[in-house]
Amino acid sequence: MAVTVYSQPGCGPCRVTMRHLDRIGVPFVSVDIREDPEAAEFVRSLGHQQTPVVVVDGPPMRHWSGYRRDELDSLQYAESNQIGALLHIECADSTPDRLLTA
User: Can you say how many angstroms the Cα of residue 60 is from the centroid of all Cα atoms in its chain?
Assistant: First the structure.
């Protein structure tokens, strides 16, 4: 799951959104739409007219604008489920015939 926050300077909800993601431990990339015209066009193509715009690269791809605590908290749940699934695969793969002996 990749999270991108499209923001701009002086945007209070952008700062709050990124601070919230940091606090809950969800990694993200921040893109300044004033510095990146292609990013600004992408945000407009999604139908958004205000920042922040948060895009979660799925599956499925999700996006919203503004500070949405409910959506952000759902990312923490999804991130922890991904880690749990990876741990489960790792543990399931540690069968006795694959363990190394000294």
Answer: 13
